[in-house]
Amino acid sequence: MRPLDSAWTVAAIVIVGIAAMVGIALGTGLEAILVFLLGGVGAVLLAIYPLSNIREATPAAIHSDEYAADTTAAVLEALTDPVLLVREGRVLNANGAAIALLGKHITGEDIRTAIRHPAAAEHLARSFRGNSDRGIELVGLGTREQRWLMHVAELGDGRRLVHLVDRSLAHAAERMRVDFVANASHELRTPLAAILGFIETLGDPEAGGDEGTRNRFLNVMMKEARRMQTLVDDLISLSRIESEKHRAPDDAVDLATLVGDVNRVVKDSPDGRDRDLMIVIDKGVPPVAGDRAQLSQLLHNIVGNAIKYGRGGTPIRITMSRNGDSMVRLSVEDEGEGIASEHLPRLTERFYRVDSGRSRAMGGTGLGLSIVKHIVERHRGRLDIASIQGKGTTVTVNLPAAPGALSSN
After folding, report:
1. How far apart are CA 195 and CA 221, in angstroms?
2. Are 114 and 102 in contact (CB under 8 A)?
3. Which of 65, 167, 230, 333 is deepest in the core (most CB within 10 A)?
4. Nearest to 297 by CA among 267, 253, 336, 328
5. Which of the four CATH numbers 3.40.350.10, 3.30.420.10, 1.10.287.130, 3.40.190.10 does domain 171-243 have?
6. How many beta carbons lie within 10 A of that of residue 332, not counting itself?
7. 230, 364 in Cβ contact below 8 A?
8. What is the pLDDT of residue 51?
9. Average pLDDT in the 10-21 region?
10. How far apart are CA 249 and CA 230, in angstroms?
C-alpha cells in the first residue's frame, strides 16, 4: 500500500469512529452502530482503495500477458515435433525442436526466412480459416535427404501454428519396400526366364533329341531352379526373423558348439576343402541368449561369405571372447580383396551387391548380410563390418550372454 493510501485509510476510519461516538451519545442502538461501523469502513476503503489496487496486490503474472506467453512456451516445448507460433508473418515463438532444425535466429524473423523453402512460402501465403490443411511435403529442409510434412492451423486471434512432421523414415521405408519388390521380382525373373527358355528349346524335336544337349540344358535348369529355391528360402527366413524381432530369444546357446558344426560343414563342402578355419575360443566364454537355429544361420552366412570372397588357400580366422561382463564377441576374418569404404554402410541392405556379376555367379542371393543384421537386431546385439582393400574383411558380432551363464562364470 502506498503512503497516500495509508493516510486516507486512517482518516476514513477516524471519521467513521467519530460518527459512531455521536450515534452512541444520541442513544442509538448497539446493533445499528456495529452495522454502521462495518458498512462505513468498507465503503470508505473501497472508495479510497479501488478494485484495481486489489488486483495489483495479487501475483502480477496471473493477470499479465507474461503468464500467457510462459504457458504457450511451455506447451510448445512439450511437443517433440518442430512447432512455430506465427503472427503477421513473423515467428513469435518456437520450441526446441524447431530451433534445432531451423536455427536459433528464427524467433522474430519473417516465417519465409525462418523456413527457407519455396513450397513453404507458397503454402503459408494461403488462408486456412474454416478449411482443413492437408499439409505440404518439404524435401531437403534440414538436410538433403530429410522430408517434412508441414501443417498450418489458424488459432483465431491472428496467430498461426506451423507444425512440421518428420516423414524421412516413412519415406525411406516406402522406398525400401518398392526397391525390395522390384529387386525380388528381378532376381526371380532371371532364372525363371532361363528355365522357360530351355524348356522351350527341349520341346523342339531336333534340339531336344540330342542327348548331350538335353543333359546340358537340364543341368542348367536344375542350377537355376535351385537358385530360385534358395532365394525363396531366404525371403521366407527374412520375413520370419522380422516378424519375431520384438520378442528377444532367451535360450542359452553355446556358440562354440555351433562354430564346430560350421567347421565340419565347411570341410565337407567342395568350396571349403582348400580353406583352413583357424578357430580361437577363449576360456570361460559363456553361452549367449539366443535362438539356436538363427545363430547357426548367422554363422553359416558369415563364414560362407568369407569362403566366397577370400582368396583361395588363405585361412579364415574365427575368434570368440568375452566383451565386458555381459557380452560375447564373435569375429570372422578373411584374407581377400576387401571392400571399398563407400560400400560398407550399404552391405546389409537387401539385394545390395558390391559386384553383382560375381555374387550371382557364386550363387549369392544378396540377402545374406541382411539376414545377419536382422538376426543380430533380434538378439539385441551389435554388428560391425570392417574391411581394408587388398587385405580382407572382418565381421564382428557382439551378443548378450545368457543371464544364467553370467552367474555361473
Report:
1. 5
2. yes
3. 333
4. 253
5. 1.10.287.130
6. 23
7. no
8. 42
9. 58
10. 25
pTM of full prediction above 0.70: no
Measured CA to CA, the distance from residue 255 to residue 322 in angstroms comes to: 12
> Rounded to whole angstroms, what are the CA distances from 33 to 18, 27, 39, 305?
11, 10, 10, 106
Q: What is the pLDDT of residues 313-357, one digit of tens each?
A: 888 999 999 988 889 999 999 998 888 888 888 888 888 877 765
Amino acid at 338: G
In sequence order, the 6+-apart residues with CB closer than 8 A to the CB of 335 are 310, 311, 314, 315, 391, 392
The CATH topology of domain 251-408 is Heat Shock Protein 90 (3.30.565)
Greatest CA separation for the chain: 146
**Rounded to the nearest 5°, which phi and psi values hold at 140?**
90, 5
Q: What is the pLDDT of residue 239?
A: 87
Provide the grid cell at 36: 454502521
Amino acid at the residue 348 = T
Cβ atoms < 10 Å from Cβ of 46 = 11
